[in-house]
Amino acid sequence: MKTDYKQIRANEEINLLIEKGNATLNALGYTEHSKKHAAKVAETAGKILKELGYGKHKIELAKIAGYMHDIGNAINRHDHAHSGAILAYQILKDTEMPLKDILVVATAIGHHDEATGTAVDGVSAALILADKTDVRRNRVQNRNKATFDIHDRVNYAALSSKLIIEKEKRIIQMELELDDSICTVMDYFEIFLKRMIMCRRAAERLNCKFKLMANGSKLC
Question: Which of 23, 42, 69, 160 has the highest CB neighbour count under 10 A?
């Protein structure tokens, strides 16, 4: 594979799409989907596959898919996974990436949203797990706490969030610490239940079990 993650992160077109998408979502009141989120998802997706023993090639594809997964937001939040997959396919065709690798990346991007997607292979599974577990206070772009919606409250309440991979036990565990004066665990489940089900299925695609711990309690 001649096109690597480092080149993708430096690609001006991709970065402009990410930033335009984030600016659009900010205007609509959504949480942060900037290059910071893109890079975090990319690194986490790569980490998941690395710790489960996948090869360098698959790891690199997961990182590329992770960095590019939200570029469709520059077009519209609605169906952004699908438009993002098409954009990624066209952009990557202009690079030296082999077509079979382009298709793996595009498929992962096209399946990362819980409304229409699911894990279909290792790369898409890693992307889903990395994306859906990126819950953190600094993703809240709304500076007025009085106007927080439930998504803002959940992210702002997240004091810490980490993903632990136990290769031998085949467990992928998310550990979340919430400030329950801002958001309860029930609030979390109100908006993230579909995402957690999606994570469970993604973990199963990787022959693992997904577990969620919130404030020290096992939830699933």
Answer: 69
Give the residue carrying structure tokens 């202009």.
Answer: 94
Instruction: Say how many C-beta atoms besides its own lie within 10 A of residue 98's C-beta.
Output: 13
- Residue written as tokens 């809240």? 140
* Residue 146: HSE in the Cβ half-sphere, 13 Å Cα cutoff: 0
Using one digit for the tens of pLDDT, what is the confidence trace for 113-124?
999 999 999 999
Joined together, the tokens standing for residue 26 give: 């900010």
- C-alpha 200/C-alpha 208 separation (Å) is 9
> Cβ of 19: how many Cβ atoms within 10 Å?
15
Task: Supply φ then ψ for residue 191, to 5 degrees.
Answer: -105, -20
Amino acid at position 38, single letter: A
Q: In whole angstroms, what is the distance from residue 47 CA to residue 27 CA?
A: 32
144's tokens: 């007025």
Nearest by Cα to 195 from 120, 152, 135: 135
Total-model pTM? 0.94
Report which residue type is found at 142: N
The shares of helix, strand and coil residues in the chain, as percent rounded to the nearest 5, are 60, 10, 30
The SS3 of residue 165 is strand
54-60-62-65 Cα dihedral, nearest 10 degrees:
-170
Q: Are 161 and 136 in contact (CB under 8 A)?
A: yes
Instruction: Please check whether residue 68 is in contact with residue 88, taking contact to mean a CB–CB distance below 8 angstroms.
Output: yes
pLDDT in tens, 52-111: 999 999 999 999 999 999 999 999 999 999 999 999 999 999 998 999 999 999 999 999
